[in-house]
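Thread: zinc ion complex, take 2
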Amino acid sequence: MDEDKRLRVPVDYHIHERHSADTAPGSTVEAYVRRAEALGLEEICFTTHLIVSGPDVATGIDPDEIPEYFREIEEAQTSTSVRLRVGVEVDYFPGEEHRIERILDEYPFDFILGALHIVEGCDLGYRYGAERFFADRPMHKAVKTYFKWFRRAVESGLFDVMAHPDYFRRYLPSIGLRIPDFREYASEALEALEAMREHHIGFEINSSGYRHGIGDCYPTLEFVKAARRMGIENITIGSDSHSVEHLGGWLNHALETLTKAGYRRLSTYRGRRRRNIDIGI
Ligand SMILES: [Zn+2]
Ligand SMILES: [Zn+2]
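Output below.
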């Protein structure tokens, strides 16, 4: 790997291993750890899916397997100097807050990443779900609806950080729709950011948009700039890897977005307590 390609980010806080059923074969904790060592990552956080409702329940970890998930990561920690953290990416479902809370309270997670993938029954993480969602409503209404539920997820107070805040953009180009400019949904985005500030919940800058072919992070630079102006300080960074080869993928681009917006620090979590680290540019 030449100097230009060297990963300039010491952490990756969004990783799916084999307990997420949508991962590639061989996505074991052990394989990720070896890859993290090769990349020079200092700390990684596993965030397997936890989905308590809807048609994708089986994509997430079976709550009965959570102790095994912890054990695998603890076992891997004995053979590496990369700091390993145990997290989970939790789908938000209105009305399921207590069930989610009970599961999260039962285990000593380091980090809880909240996610809004399914909006009013449409899974925006799949092309057909996005097609259905955007076919049923004009773009401005779709974005308004998305952020309404995103805000509700924030207000639940269940999560440390919200994953990929403008995830609704994922399939727009591939279903033939234009990605709206930030200005077109700025008021909804600002309300979401206001809720995050009020509830002390951060957001994630997620580099997988490059892998998904939208040529950008989630969220987009303008969103990050607005967060900066609002004084939001807790931001994690993640590749959203679903296979070992994607670990750390495009994180330099995500870092660049953060620094362009004026951020100089990133957040990490242990036992759900936040620590900020210097980006070191
Ligand atoms: Zn996600
Ligand atoms: Zn994910």
